[in-house]
Amino acid sequence: MRASGAATKNPSQQRWISKVLILVVSLLVFLEGGSRLILSLNSIRQRVMGIDDASYRLQWVRLHQQHREWTGPFAVYDPTRGWAVKSDIQDMRLSDGTILNTNSRGLRGKTEYEYQKPTGKQRIVILGDSFTFGSEVADDDTYSHYLASSLPNTEVLNLGVQGYGHDQMLLYLKEQGVKYDPDIVIVGFTYIDVYRNIESFFAYAKPKFKVVSGTLQLTNVPVPTPDHVLAMEPFRPRAFDLLQILGEKLRWTFGKNETEAREVTKLLLAQIIATTRSIGAVPVFVYLPVHDEIEPVPQFGVVAASPPVPDREQFLSGICQKENIPCLFLRSRFQEEVKRGVDFRAKSHWNAKAHEVGGEEIKNFLLRSNLIAKIQNNSVSETGSKAQN
User: Fold this and answer.
1) Model pLDDT, residue 387
2) How far apart (Å, rounded) are the C-alpha atoms in residues 27 and 118?
3) pLDDT digit string (tens) for 13-40?
4) Residues 219, 207: contact at Cβ < 8 Å?
5) Residue 54: left (phi > 0), alpha (psi -120 to 50), or beta?
6) What is the structure's pLDDT at 28?
């Protein structure tokens, strides 16, 4: 009887618990309603949105509802990498007026490449994002096409994909790039891709590598389909999205995300290097200057002086020195051309002239570093060895 009486709550306790529950529920409803209002008003939402999974997901949903895709009309869902370039595109006219073609495996241009490298040919595979893919320029105006046209007896395969981070480049290299038996693997490095490596949603849902005890652990694979993302959207609490957005803003403010992005990027690039070397190919990194790295944008009429070697370039240079790989930085050449009055900008990417200059510098670097000559000698030695056998 005593135990039973102790377990029974008196009326005042029950009223107090009820009031607390009502308060908690009211607060949750208020937070959810307020969050939905904030994220639905364009003027407020644009100020709130940041660099985080929730912001990118909400942006993708809005674009998708408008029958637009951040990845472009030439992208297709991929369960491992999130998205890939569609295959067999023929003369697709894009909104910027350029014409796009892809081959049967989704590589930029009309040229078909068998996995088996033609006898006596050199082969270069290039990984990268939209600057390597060649957004806003024609098939024949990409720096990869310039390389193929200017290097004799050499095939250059453009594996650039709009919106990719280095995590997706690594997976693309392992899935497809190594099958082409390249002699050289070039990474078209833009620093903005470093930040994509800590997201599980960017232009669309994507894979994400987490650092666990100093090693990479792949997560968010298989990547959810667009139908699944849209089906789950009505059940996602907007209050949680808003808290995530605000929390990530704090992490960016205190440098936490910058540190995390660099940590995972170092490991991803090391994996690209190791994968390249495992097939007997030479890894080469090329720092592609973009946006204000080419021509600083004045603020209040004043252009801030840049240090001799910007921190972003030092980051990549340190990796190249540690891993002992050839590394090329294009910024100085671009800035020299800008001083001469050359305009390198399309709407938001390189124009054809920038690709031409970039391709020329990469070609000269490969020749100057004796990478092409070494490959030619190796090809001759292998051919002679096979003939003797």
Assistant:
1) 33
2) 68
3) 777 777 666 666 656 555 666 676 777 7
4) yes
5) alpha
6) 56
Q: Looking at residue 7, what is its pLDDT?
A: 52
Name the band, by pLDDT with cuts 50, 70 and 90, for residue 1: very low
**Mean predicted lDDT score pLDDT of the chain:** 88
pLDDT band at 388 (very low <50, low <70, confident <90, very high): very low
What's the token pair of residue 230? 């849209």
Domains and CATH numbers, the chain: 49-296+309-383 (3.40.50.1110)
Question: What is the per-residue pLDDT for 385?
Answer: 36
**HEC per residue, the chain:** CHHHHHHCCCHHHHHHHHHHHHHHHHHHHHHHHHHHHHHHCHHHHHHHCCCCHHHHHHHHHHHHHCCCCCCCCCEEEECCCEEEECCCCCCEECCCCCEECECCCCCECCCCCCCCCCCCCEEEEEECCHHHHCCCCCHHHCHHHHHHHHCCCEEEEECCCCCCCHHHHHHHHHHCHHHHCCCEEEEEECCHHHHHCCCCECCCECCEEEEECCEEEEECCCCCCHHHHHHHHHHCCHHHHHHHHHHHHHHHHCCHHHHHHHHHHHHHHHHHHHHHHHCCCEEEEEECCCHHHCCCCCECCECCCCCCCCHHHHHHHHHHHHHCCCEEECHHHHHHHHHCCCCCECCCCECHHHHHHHHHHHHHHHHHCCHHHHHHHHHHHHHHHHHHC
The tens digit of pLDDT for each residue in 309-323 reads: 589 999 999 999 999
Residue showing tokens 């073609």: 101
Chain CA centroid to CA 126, Å: 14
Cα gap 288→331, rounded to integer Å: 7
Q: What's the sign of the alpha-carbon dihedral 212, 216, 218, 220?
A: positive
